[in-house]
Amino acid sequence: MIVVMKSGSDDATIQHVIDRIGELGLQPHVSRGRFRTIIGAIGEEAESFLPKLKSLPGVDDVLAIMRPYKLAAREFHPEGSVVRVGPVEFGGRACVGIAGPCAVENDTTIFQVGRAVRAAGARMLRGGAFKPRTSPYSFQGMGEDGLKILRAAADELGMPVASEVMDPRQVELAVRYVDMLQIGARNMQNFTLLSEVGKTRKPVLLKRGLAASVKEWLMSAEYVLAQGNKDVVLCERGIKTFEGAMRYTFDVGAVVVAKRETHLPVIIDPSHAAGDRQWVPGLTLAGIAAGADGFIVEVHDCPEDAMCDGPQAVFPAAFAEMMDQCRAVAAAVGREFPEAE
Ligand code: PEP
Ligand code: MN
Questions:
Q1: Can you tell me the distance from the alpha carbon of 50 to that of 335, in angstroms, rounded to the nearest whole number?
Q2: How far is the CA of 167 from the centre of ligand 2 (A)?
Q3: For a designed S-S bond to 222, which of 28, 69, 148, 238 qualifies (C-beta 3.0 to 4.6 A apart)?
Q4: What ligand has the least distance to the C-alpha of 308?
Q5: Which atom of ligand 1 is found nearest the CA of 128?
Q6: Domain tally for the chain?
Q7: Residue 186's domain spans which residues?
């Protein structure tokens, strides 16, 4: 249920409603909007709760949330949420670019690529230290050594960094080094992992599963939100379909639907959808035009030597060119876009 408070309700009145929601065995989630405070009452509901809450002082209305993803639903939070990662804001006026190599591979590449993508206007760095590989014999990531390199690069470049965690046992370690925890497509329904990152206060980048519906994706976001972590950014990264022209099918419609269904910021990952660098700029522009709040793109200065996902990594020069095109599309849809240095 959503309890809509009368505009101008004071703190004591709001607190009384929060206490009563707790007494009914529901979890109160307060959302203070510009004009009104809305309190989500989440949990096992009984019919008798609605008139009880409606009669409390300061309550304007009590509405049922029709969506199964209660905290993620736009019904619960009509204004778009802004997720802050250090100085970077997702879901604000500006479209945010995250870029970097697929994986941290050594202690030089991430610095070189980071410098180049920052110069082109990227605001955040990416790099995996724990890699979900199809083959157990493929490079699995540098682990904690990789996280240390990521932290050093992020500090030197002055850019926050996002990196993937694959297992609840990696979360405690990763929060010491990274600014944003990435949940990969293969783990979108690893509910234990989702709850674990939900217990942290680090922003979470939640990729859509390879074969997950938008509804399932939002239910996964709900797992994180239900633990009290409000900072979730969704990421469309392509799904499996019969179409084989690209590695996955970039579902631009999912961006449009997700932006309508949830208040959470939505970004796109054209690199993993494409699987081939030639398609990356086109997909990025399509995502921005559709309303994405940003993108995460793999960039490498020598893709043929990359230990992971070389074929889809764009060269720094192509990235800079793509960023200029993004600037034009962002302006056309009323978004700001960071200038190149
Ligand atoms: C990645 O970002 O490197 C990655 C493995 O992405 P996904 O989980 O979307 O495949
Ligand atoms: Mn990758």
A1: 40
A2: 17
A3: 69
A4: 2
A5: 3
A6: 2
A7: 83-332
CA of 43 from ligand 2 middle (Å) equals 37
- The alpha carbon of 33 and the centre of ligand 2 are apart by a number of angstroms equal to 37
Res. 323 pLDDT band, cuts 50 70 90 = very high
Protein residue closest via CA to atom 4 of ligand 1 = 184
| Last residue of one domain, picked from the residues 34, 64, 94 | 64
Residue 175: which residues within 8 A CB-CB, separation 6 or more? Answer: 181, 200, 202
Percent of the chain surpassing pLDDT 70: 100
Q: Residue 133 CA: which ligand is closest?
A: 1
**What is the rounded CA–CA span in Å between residue 294 and residue 296?**
7
Q: 132 CB under 6 A from ligand 1?
A: yes
| Inside any domain, residue 269 | yes
pLDDT tens digits for 90-111? Answer: 999 999 999 999 999 999 999 9
Q: Which amino acid is at 178?
A: V
Tell me if 341 is assigned to some domain.
no
Q: What is the pLDDT of residues 199-243, one digit of tens each?
A: 999 999 999 999 999 999 999 999 999 999 999 999 999 999 999
Nearest to 152 by CA among 180, 120, 116, 111: 111
What's the 329 CA to ligand 1 centre distance in angstroms? 25
Tell whether ligand 1 has an atom less than 6 A from the beta carbon of residue 291. Answer: no
Q: What is the pLDDT of residue 182?
A: 98
Whether 15 is covered by a domain: the verdict is: yes
- pLDDT above 90: residue 45: no
pLDDT at 66 exceeding the cut of 90: no
Question: Same domain, yes or no, for 43 and 171?
Answer: no
